[in-house]
Specification:
Distance between the termini: 42 Å
Shape: elongated
CATH topology: Ubiquitin-like (UB roll)
Number of domains: 1
Strand order of the largest sheet: 2-1-7-5-6
Largest sheet: 5 strands, mixed
CATH class: Alpha Beta
Bound molecules: FE2/S2 (inorganic) cluster
Oligomer: single chain
Helix content: 25-40%
Length: 119
């Protein structure tokens, strides 16, 4: 994961640097770490700009990256502010947002279900 200075430097290579279209930096939390992001940008764009490519964990426990970037494939689901299965490409960054990647409530419960079903 990139620190704030590295992230800002990397974003200057965007086709349209974020400061030209959005002029408001906000603080968010990604996997327990605090980051500066641009309000209004998609959560997926922010994750990718921070070099986070493994975004989601599906119901089979498989880690996956985003595929379509436009809300069709459901490969980018993350936990946002305590709500599981939010599509990162369809949510926009807001001040104080808490994002957990590779989070899947179902797979965290699987060991419990399997243990109970096999008894
Ligand atoms: S990347 Fe396909 S739904 Fe988000």
């Amino acid at each position: 994961m990139l620190n704030g200075t590295e992230h800002d430097a990397l974003r200057q290579n965007d086709i349209v640097p974020p400061h030209e279209i959005i002029n408001k930096k906000v603080t968010i939390t990604i996997d327990g770490n605090t980051h500066v992001a641009y309000q209004g940008e998609s959560v997926l764009a922010t994750l990718l700009s921070m070099n986070i490519r493994s975004v989601s964990r599906n119901d089979h426990g498989v880690v996956q990256g985003a595929y379509c970037g436009m809300g069709i494939c459901y490969c980018c689901m993350v936990k946002i502010d305590g709500h599981n299965k939010q599509r990162a490409c369809q949510r926009t960054i807001e001040q104080g947002m808490n994002i957990d990647t590779l989070s899947n409530h179902f797979t965290t419960l699987l060991p419990v279900f399997e243990k109970e079903w096999r008894l």
